[in-house]
Design brief:
Layout: H1 10-21, H2 27-40, H3 57-68, E1 75-79, H4 87-104, E2 107-111, H5 115-121, E3 124-129, E4 132-138, H6 139-144, H7 149-156, H8 197-201, E5 206-208, E6 214-216
Parallel strand pairs: 1-2
Antiparallel strand pairs: 3-4, 4-6, 5-6
């Protein structure tokens, strides 16, 4: 939301994105496209000359999505798209992303720590720890059968509204490592309750455990 320049209108910033990628487009044509993009993301196109401070948080997020779509990308990268939004507005933005993905035929890479967003929007999931992918697979497989201890820890620390009984959430002990001086071997071993001596010195291979499900863990043979 804070990526918009406060001294330029929202429309001018979308126009700039269009003309930087397509220098031959006139300012008038780019402005018309900016209005269509705002309409596409659910913002009244008459607000094209408004400034960022005149937009709500959700509208600014939508304006950023419009700017990202200005160059007709085949891949949209959304990094924490619901951060700093209230629950209702966040749900609206996520619904918009899902609709745009289907309507425009986009591929979308979603970067988030929120498991509920992953479950709602993603088809494939890569779980990362300290800069390394530790588990990869389709969403249903990852949620139903998490194999890496870090993935299991994430699942255990996230509340479920479908739980029949009151669940105790389990946190992952310790702190993330210093990425300027990461631990040798498996980067998760200092916090892993299953850690073995081999984990300290040898980085685990990324293994195919079947069904397009991959795990990097010495527990997996």
């Amino acid at each position: 939301m804070n990526a918009l320049n406060p001294v330029y209108s929202v429309g001018d910033q979308i126009v700039e994105a269009i003309r930087l990628h397509e220098p031959g487009v006139s300012k008038k044509e780019a402005l018309e496209r900016a209005m269509k993009l705002l309409e596409l993301v659910g913002v009244d196109p008459s607000r094209v000359n408004s400034y960022p401070h005149e937009f709500s948080g959700g509208m600014r997020q939508r304006a950023m999505i419009a700017m990202a779509l200005a160059s007709n990308p085949s891949l949209l990268i959304a990094d924490e798209p619901a951060t700093a939004l209230d629950v209702i507005v966040a749900a609206q933005v996520l619904k918009l992303l899902k609709e745009l993905k289907d309507k425009l035929g986009l591929s979308m890479m979603l970067i988030t720590h929120d498991l509920s967003i992953i479950a709602e929007l993603c088809e494939k999931t890569a779980i990362m720890y300290a800069g390394k992918v530790v588990e990869y697979g389709d969403v249903v497989t990852i949620f139903k059968n998490p194999l890496h201890p870090y993935t299991q820890g994430l699942m255990s620390s996230f509340p479920s509204v479908k739980a029949k009984e009151r669940m105790k959430l389990i946190s992952i002990p310790g702190s993330p490592p210093d990425l300027l001086n990461p631990p040798t071997g498996c980067r998760f071993y200092p916090r892993c309750k299953f850690a073995m001596e081999i984990c300290r010195g040898k980085e685990p291979a990324f293994l195919d455990v079947g069904g397009n499900h991959y795990v990097a863990c010495h527990l997996i043979k």
